[in-house]
């Protein structure tokens, strides 16, 4: 995402996107109250407390340095997405495969478009 650092609000949205969750699901995973997550998501507060940050790392595997500063890796070292059920893993894998197929389609379109445009210029 360029050189600009994201805000806490933006990082909460990145968590949603990368984990495929919403505030309610993140709350269930971490034990963090939904209003606390909502306030961060909406920018009503930008200073999560220590318990919030620790829960993100311990229960969701989010690197607390990344969450606080925007620097480093998204997932904490030696963490995986084990807190998701098998069905959720299958769904995420399917979503990733669909996204990869879409990316491949877009790449083909760009190549075809570029080739067509270069033919017209000769």
Automatic annotation (TrEMBL):
SUPFAM superfamilies: lambda repressor-like DNA-binding domains. Transmembrane segments: none annotated. It comes from the Bacteria. This is HTH cro/C1-type domain-containing protein. It comes from Arcticibacterium luteifluviistationis. Residues 24-67 form the HTH cro/C1-type domain. Gene3D superfamilies: lambda repressor-like DNA-binding domains. Signal peptide: none annotated. It holds the Pfam family HTH_3. InterPro entries: Cro/C1-type_HTH, Lambda_DNA-bd_dom_sf. GO terms for molecular function: DNA binding. Coiled coil: none annotated.
């Amino acid at each position: 995402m360029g050189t600009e650092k994201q805000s806490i609000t933006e990082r909460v949205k990145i968590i949603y996107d990368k984990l495929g969750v919403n505030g309610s699901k993140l709350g269930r995973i971490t034990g963090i109250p939904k209003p606390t997550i909502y306030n961060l998501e909406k920018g009503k507060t930008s200073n999560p407390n220590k318990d919030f940050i620790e829960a993100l790392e311990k229960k969701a595997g989010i690197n607390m340095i990344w969450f606080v500063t925007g620097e480093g890796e998204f997932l904490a070292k030696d963490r995986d997405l084990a807190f998701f059920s098998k069905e959720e893993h299958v769904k995420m894998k399917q979503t990733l495969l669909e996204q990869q197929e879409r990316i491949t389609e877009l790449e083909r379109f760009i190549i075809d478009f570029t080739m067509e445009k270069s033919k017209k210029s000769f």
